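User: Predict structure, ligand adenosine-5'-triphosphate.
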Amino acid sequence: MSILSLQDVSKDYLTDGQPVHALNGLSLNVERGEFVALVGRSGCGKSTLLNLAGAMDFPTSGKVLVDGVSTSSLKDGGLTRLRRERVGFIFQSFQLLHTLTVFENVELPLLLAGKRYPREVAQERLAWVNLEGLGDRYPHQLSGGQMQRVAIARALIHSPSILLADEPTGNLDTTTGNVILELLRRLTREQNTAIVVATHSLEAASLANTLVRLRDGKIEEITRC
Ligand SMILES: Nc1ncnc2c1ncn2[C@@H]1O[C@H](COP(=O)(O)OP(=O)(O)OP(=O)(O)O)[C@@H](O)[C@H]1O
Ligand SMILES: [Mg+2]
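Assistant: Predicted complex:
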């Protein structure tokens, strides 16, 4: 079973009473361990697709299945569990909490879920992103690339089956961005995590197993590399 399946998904937003068709009957399957790059012009629907995949929002019609479960069928408790246990989300702007240390930022999803884990779990995730030894620092003591790696460690703290990343390298220089992308690719191989990245970067696109080109809320082309 695919870890993510979008089946004839449409998403309309209402702005000033006028519908905006952000996604138009889009179907896509993502398998475990697959690295998918979503590309296309600004406004083509990349972020909308990621938000639906992460159950942050719901389709107007069609179905979004995460690990075989339709997000629209879930009640509050099920949705919270899905977001906390299955899905990791990385934002362009990192969204670290500046009053918390690196360790505390990485552990935040566990704290929110009321779970206690030994510090070793956060330590291991920081090692995955090559940030051993920086756990006691605060975000303002880190570079942009390091902050983004903390955000990745945080998204991985609960070993999600699928990691959704919205322009994770958008705020980084090319070299740092490439390090992050290589890291994401390594995760797909070593942890069998599926990754869907919305990106304007050609490097990201070239690392992906699958390149999905969107246009006006539809898939224009799928390239398997
Ligand atoms: N909350 C919203 N309310 C109304 N319209 C929205 C909303 N979010 C997105 N849209 C519209 O839906 C369409 C798709 O937007 P989306 O954010 O998915 O594009 P994108 O591909 O992520 O673009 P970008 O590359 O600029 O991030 C756009 O026309 C956008 O204006
Ligand atoms: Mg976007």
